[in-house]
Amino acid sequence: MKKHNFSAGPSILPQPVIEQSAQGVLNINNSNLSLIEISHRSKDFVDIMDNATSLALELLNLKNKGYKALFLQGGASMQFLMTAYNLLENKAGYINTGAWSSKALKEAKNFGDAIEVASSKDANFNYIPKNYEVDSNLDYLHITTNNTIFGTQFHDIPDVETNLICDMSSDIFSRQIDFSKFSLIYAGAQKNMGPAGTTLVVVKESILGKVSRTIPSMLDYKTHIDKDSMFNTPPVFAVYTSMLTLEWLKENGGISNIEKKNIEKANLLYDAIDNNELFNGFARKEDRSLMNVTFNLKNQEHKNNFDKLCLEANINGVNGHRSVGGYRASIYNALSIDSIKVLIEVMNELKRTI
Ligand SMILES: *Cc1c(COP(=O)(O)O)cnc(C)c1O
After folding, report:
1. How far is Cα 284 from Cα 39, in angstroms, rounded to an integer?
2. Which amino acid residue places its CA nearest to atom 8 of ligand 1?
């Protein structure tokens, strides 16, 4: 029996996607060849890449708006430095909402003046800073829309005069926002889109080519735009599986439909946490993430018991990150509401047993 998979990343993918992806490894498009043994220049794979980039732009409603979608390697972590390499000339601002934004800021400092515009470090990142000033002279402002580790999320995307750059690794394709507010969005595939090994970058072409430094080819967005993400051999399996997830999302009503389900799932789980006197939520209520639900037992004496009940109920991956402790249920697009109900039932069961 499949487990209820609350893993933070790599994480749950739709079951039909896993099956199709496995089939592609065995025999892609009835070619009697495996996806992973054909040329990335073959029509079979070029079509996959075209379809994947086109679906990404379509789902984000960014088609014909001056954006390019790229599938790159090096993870979101590579984007921490690539964004700054390509875009930081004088000064860039960062909203520090957790471990990932801190790392992005650290990398940017290699390329110029990168400042922390606001931070929620004072409360172990359990909220999203508000009411900060953004200097319009910044080359860009960088935010992390969803903080995977701490379970907070920007519910209002800041309006800024400068370019808005965003790490959307753990909430891309999960909710409807005006994606055209961003000049660049990046997201490691392994949270809500596919297996590890590729990173989606959606970039507005007009922001590129403005820095004075020389950028090595592999780290220059223009290289990858010019070569349609095939400057070097792309991670074919990761791109193919991501394409299948994007197709699945489109067939299931796109972002607006999945958002409704995500809200329903998150509300159900947060209500269960709030209504169970054994548990506390970690993030401030108004900033709670729809994707990563962080919570803890008020009394650690119940930990062994709760862990045992989770195991018995086939629940996987609810341990919190070491920097927060407690529990984290990652409830990405592919996780069904039935899995949420199983977790809630276990929480209620714990209450009954003590
Ligand atoms: C997981 C994650 C990362 C790191 O991604 P890698 O692909 O492992 O480099 C960065 N940012 C956020 C928000 C994440 O959730």
Report:
1. 49
2. 75
The reply to whether omega before 129 is within 30° of 0 (cis) is no
Amino acid at 83: T
Which of the listed residues 196, 219, 251 is the one where a domain comes to its end?
251
pLDDT digits (tens, 9 = 90+) for 232-250: 999 999 999 999 999 999 9
Q: Which residues, listed in sequence order, are joined to residue 328 by a DSSP beta bridge? A: 294
Structure tokens that stand for 235 in this block: 């991670």
Identify the pLDDT of residue 354. Answer: 86
Do 258 and 247 sit in the same domain of this protein? no
CA-to-CA separations, 325 to 121, 124, 320, in angstroms, rounded: 16, 11, 5
Kindly state whether residues 291 and 266 are assigned to the same domain: yes
**Which of 148, 152, 199 has most ligand 1 atoms within 8 Å of its beta carbon, as the pocket-test mutant?**
148
CATH code, domain carrying 330: 3.90.1150.10
Q: How many domains does the chain have?
A: 2
Q: How far is the CA of 75 from the centre of ligand 1 (A)?
A: 7
Q: Based on the domain organization, do 269 and 241 belong to the same domain?
A: no
pLDDT digits (tens, 9 = 90+) for 82-107: 999 999 999 999 999 999 999 999 99
Q: Which of 100, 150, 154 to mutate to test the pocket of ligand 1 (most atoms within 8 A of CB)?
A: 100
**Protein residue with least CA distance to atom 13, ligand 1:** 169
Q: Using one digit for the tens of pLDDT, what is the confidence trace for 264-307?
A: 999 999 999 999 999 999 999 999 999 999 999 999 999 999 99
CA-based nearest residue to 334, from 154, 178, 193: 193
> Do residues 127 and 203 both lie within one domain?
yes
Last residue of a domain, one of 204, 220, 251: 251
Torsion of CA 40, 193, 168, 337, to 10 degrees: 180
